[in-house]
Structure formats: C-alpha cells, structure tokens
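Review form for a predicted model. The reviewer records the input and the model, then writes brief findings.
Reviewer: anonymous (R2)
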Amino acid sequence: MTTSLDSDRPILAQQKMMMSEKAKRRASTLSAVSSSAQSVTPSQYSREAGLLEITNCLHKLDVPRLQEQRFVLTEQKGGELGKLALGAKLERALGRRMTGQDAVFRKKKVLQ
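Model under review:
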C-alpha cells in the first residue's frame, strides 16, 4: 500500500478498493431472496372497504335533527369572540412576563 505524498498515511482509495473486494466475496443473506418477489401491499378491496366505512361514519354524523341544534356564528359574533380570545391571550402573556419581577421603589437621596 502506498502512502500519500503529504503525509505518512496510506491512500484511502486503495483501502476502499480492498474493502469492495471483500464485500464481493462475502455471502449476503439478502442476495438469497429473489428480486422478483412482490412486497405485500393492501389490496384494492381493503382500500374500498376502508373508504366505505369512513363514508358510513360521516353519514351517521349528518342527522337533520342534530343539524338544527348546531350553533352557527354570525360574522359579528365571531369577531367579538376573536377579540375576547386575543385579549385573554395577551392577559396571560403579560401575567407570565410580570411574574418574578418584584420591583422595589426607593426614594432618591438628595445630595446637599
């Protein structure tokens, strides 16, 4: 094995080539498996059955009697609730910001 011109280390390209020769000789368990074997995938039937189940569940949720009871916000009410939520969020943030900051105000001494 030759060394590099810049240092006493052996050249890595030759080491890689030697390793690849070892890899060629080594028996692999993966090579015993035929490449034509198909991987297991869900069948078309199971996909359709899953979709059918989901659509059935969604149809169960669509009950007209319950649709009448659902609350729908007007734009004005939605805006008011949004402002209230933003105010509450700011209050919580300011509360966290001010905790642990106990300021002590002292009178300045007047120099005479």
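Findings: The chain has a mean pLDDT of 75.
Further findings: The chain is about 55% helix and 0% strand.
Recommendation: see findings above.
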